[in-house]
Specification:
Largest sheet: 2 strands, antiparallel
Number of helices: 37
Strand content: under 5%
Structural class: mainly alpha
CATH class of one domain: Mainly Alpha
Oligomer: single chain
CATH architecture of one domain: Alpha Horseshoe
């Protein structure tokens, strides 16, 4: 029977090089270790025994006998980490015990008590028995560097302070994102945390309290209150800063308080704060003092104290003049009707140094200097150049506005005022603005309806520089367009485009001329070019929309209208225009929604109520339409279309007594139209009030004696009531019919005589048309000219032809047969005028 293989065979076999038991007998290794810096260290002190080094522990492991149950331990003596001499003595003893040869260190003298200790200490652990009889590292009595130290009070205070600063930063970021609510909440939380920090420092007796942090947090909270419109809370926070002296710059705090009080319309307190701030500012800070004095003068203007404001502005002008101060001083003198001082302020305004234009830079630069040209190209549109342009535009605006005030306030003779201003400007450094004032003088002529002088003034610029020539030609084109002289309007529009082809106003004028001539394709081209140059040109955009409506390009119209609403989101007229376009495309629901948006802005516009009522009425919903029509009548009782719809509605619903009110109102609006008077009488008759109907018919017959319908109604009512006036009205009806026959014969004769001269045939249809036209002209002469209410609906309302639907009652059957017939007999068609059988007696009256 063979032996079973040993499962654990080979586990105790290892490479002899890995045997550590014989390392302590290796003298060469020991000598090599002693030659290192670690081996040359002195013997450790008593404390070093607690922290044995790696080699000393390894030596203890080497010196430990096999299968020893007592582990190597570190005592408080020097055995934990021995010096070189001590290790040598100990090794000698061990070598003697085991019979090993002596190493080199055995022959070295013992110097452990004389050599200094090494600078490197042990880790602070010692070996001890652990669980299951193994050996583990046991913590020594030294401190543990991995243990978390307890925070001190100062560190806690610094952490709270950092959190407060973080809250302020978050508040600022939230305000930059237009989140005012979050910004205010963060600011208030920062104030609460700062108060908690102050209490904590007092409790822990921490004397290093940061006053600047408290002032910083309070000032930020006050600013957030101001931004959110909470003026009372902001004033309270500023008072806390002043009372506790948290910020040394008290003058700036009072300036902020003055601005808040000025915004709250507490002008007296604001003036007091500004003056206190002025007293607290030092003389070295002259700029801030001037700003405060400007605020004081502005407060006087708001309070209506123009004299005190003028005195303050005068003192500022004497020290350091600027455009805003000089212009405000001129306004004060203008309000006080002090014309001499107004002109003096204008001359002070012209004394301010003017910023050179970009052309001056180009002239001063040498074109051959490449380096200078590169520098000029680099600074052509930098931030400083943009600031210069902005300041230059502001100066031009101030001077031209001041010249307008002086020119229009020269005892009714504005020409003299403009001439004086132009002379003063030409004598100053603002000579470039003289031509612009000439154009303003021409515009002043337009306000006086003096078109001849305005055109003559503008024509002087035809040979001027391109910019002025373009502006003058643009105004001339507009003037001729208003006078409906389209040829000259076209001429000067072309001249303006020749001078400056990128002038959007000239392109718009050119498009207007084409639109007036119904050349919609060219008008569309010029409007689109104007929009390509200036995308915010509202005039070009609106006219382009009207042109596209004429061309029935409704999809493009909708796109441009959406752009229009972005430019002017609160313009209700744009909403009406959009609704009209949608109505033409049969999108009734969307049109109604746009009208409702416009109605939400202008709730008292009767036109909008009527338009919505028309849309609802088109959907056969008269009950809802009635409400909108009634609101339209309430807001605009003179709208004839509203009155007509309401009257017809109540007549259809058999409420003639309610229709009387609207018919009477329509008769007052259009007193020259007999239709409304007849409808009033008809409503009386339908309601059973025959007496009122008879009186109304008599009144109509008195004012319109030639109306046969009124006479027939009088005959009918007289017959029904059994009155004796029936025969009288029948005779009047015969006379009126006879008179109309005579008039018709005379018109026919006149037409024959005219056609005899022309020598052509006249058909019966032509006779009827010409007679009807003349009858209409006579009736129009007899009627009063009605008020054109269609022009009151606004520029954007769709101009439609007014179609009236007269209400004529149906006569009973027995009256139809009794109506008189005309005496004119119909001639044969295409009769020749030079017929020998013509009866000349027909030309004479009966």
């Amino acid at each position: 029977m063979t032996d079973k293989p040993d499962s654990y065979a080979g586990f105790n076999e290892y490479n002899p090089l890995l045997d550590t038991n014989n390392l302590k007998y290796d003298t060469e290794l020991q000598q090599a270790v002693l030659k290192t810096s670690h081996g040359r260290r002195a013997a450790p002190s008593s404390q070093a025994g607690q922290k044995g080094g790696f080699f000393s522990k390894m030596k203890n492991v080497f010196n430990r006998p096999k299968n020893a149950d007592v582990p190597v331990s570190a005592s408080n003596s020097t055995t934990g980490r021995l010096g070189t001499a001590s290790r040598a003595a100990q090794q000698q003893q061990q070598n003697t015990a085991v019979g090993a040869p002596l190493g080199s260190t055995a022959r070295r003298p013992v110097t452990a008590q004389k050599r200094p200790t090494t600078a490197i200490q042990g880790a602070g652990f010692s070996a001890g028995p652990g669980a299951f009889g193994s050996y583990v590292a046991v913590s020594a009595a030294g401190p543990n560097p991995f243990e978390k130290k307890e925070e001190s009070n100062e560190e806690k205070a610094r952490k709270i302070e950092k959190s407060i600063i973080d809250l302020v930063n978050e508040s600022c970021l939230a305000y930059e994102k237009n989140d005012s609510k979050t910004a205010l909440e963060k600011a208030e939380e920062a104030v609460r945390n700062e108060k908690s920090l102050t209490r904590y420092c007092e409790e822990q007796s921490i004397t290093e309290s940061d006053i600047n942090l408290q002032g910083f947090v309070t000032l930020h909270c006050a600013n957030m209150y101001t931004k959110c419109g909470m003026n009372t809370e902001a004033i309270n926070q500023y008072n806390i800063i002043l009372k506790n002296k948290l910020i040394p710059a008290h003058s700036r705090i009072r300036i902020n308080m003055g601005n808040i009080l000025l915004q709250s319309k507490q002008y007296v307190k604001a003036l007091k704060m500004f003056r206190m701030a002025l007293d607290q500012v030092s003389e070295q800070n002259s700029d801030l003092k001037l700003k405060i004095r400007e605020n004081i003068a502005a407060t006087h203007i708001i309070m209506g104290q123009y004299g005190e404001a003028a005195q303050t502005y005068e003192s500022i002008v004497q020290e350091r003049a600027n455009y805003r101060v000089c212009f405000n001083l001129l306004l004060c003198y203008h309000t006080l009707n002090q014309r001499d001082k107004t002109r003096s302020a204008f001359t002070d305004l012209l004394k301010i140094p003017f910023i050179n234009s970009e052309d001056d830079y180009l002239v001063s630069m040498d074109k051959e200097n490449k380096h200078a040209n590169l520098v000029l190209e680099a600074i052509r549109d930098d931030r400083l150049r943009q600031y210069e342009r902005k300041r230059r535009r502001f100066a031009e605006h101030v001077i031209i506005t001041a010249a307008k005030l002086i020119g229009n306030n020269s005892d009714g003779e504005f020409v003299g005022g403009y001439e004086w201003c132009i002379e003063q400007v030409r004598a100053s450094s603002y000579i470039e603005l003289a031509s612009g004032l000439e154009i303003q003088k021409a515009i002043a002529y337009l306000r006086e309806d003096n078109f001849v002088k305005a055109i003559a003034t503008l024509k002087e610029f035809e040979k001027a520089e391109a910019k002025l020539a373009s502006a003058a030609a643009t105004n001339l084109s507009f003037l001729y367009f208003l006078e409906k002289d389209l040829n000259n309007a076209h001429k000067y529009a072309d001249l303006a485009l020749k001078s400056d082809k990128f002038n959007p106003a000239s392109l718009t004028n050119k498009g207007n001329c084409c639109y007036a001539q119904e050349d919609y394709d060219k008008a569309q081209y010029y409007y689109e070019e104007a929009l390509n140059i200036d995308a915010g040109s509202v005039e070009a955009l609106h006219n382009l929309i009207l042109t596209l409506i004429k061309s029935r390009q409704f999809q493009r119209v909708k796109d441009y209208l959406h752009k229009y609403t972005i430019i002017q989101p609160d313009n209700s007229q744009v909403f009406c225009l959009m609704a009209q376009v949608l109505q033409q495309t049969n999108d009734i629901d969307q049109a109604k929604s746009w009208y409702l948006q416009a109605l939400s802005i202008h709730r008292t516009d009767g036109y909008l109520h009527r338009r919505i009522g028309e849309l609802i009425d088109g959907q056969s919903n008269k009950s809802d339409a009635l409400q909108y029509y009634f609101d339209a009548y309430r807001h605009n009782p003179c709208d004839i279309k509203t009155l007509e719809w309401l009257a017809s509605y109540y007549i259809e619903t058999q409420y003639p007594e309610k229709a009387v009110e609207f018919c009477q109102q329509a008769a007052l609006v259009r007193p020259g139209e007999i239709k409304w008077h007849l409808m009033v009488a008809s409503c009386y008759r339908r309601a059973g009030d025959y007496t009122a109907a008879l009186e109304k018919y008599k009144w109509i017959h008195q004012h319109f004696p030639e109306d046969t319908d009124c006479i027939q109604f009088l005959i009918k009512i007289s017959t029904d009531l059994g009155l004796h006036d029936r025969e009288m009205y029948e005779n009047e009806l015969k006379k009126v019919n006879k008179l109309k026959e005579i008039q018709q014969q005379r018109k026919t004769s006149a037409d024959k005589s005219q056609n005899m001269i022309k020598g052509r045939k006249v058909t019966s249809t032509e006779r009827d048309v010409s007679s009807n036209n003349r009858n209409q002209q006579i009736d129009d002469h007899r009627k009063r000219i009605p008020i054109d209410l269609d022009n009151t609906e606004g520029v954007f309302s769709q101009q439609e032809l007014i179609t009236t639907h007269p209400y004529v009652e149906q006569f009973p059957e027995h009256m139809k047969n009794e109506r008189p017939k005309t005496a004119i007999s119909k001639k044969e068609a295409n009769t020749i005028i030079f017929d020998d059988n013509d009866d000349a007696a027909e030309l004479l009256p009966d």
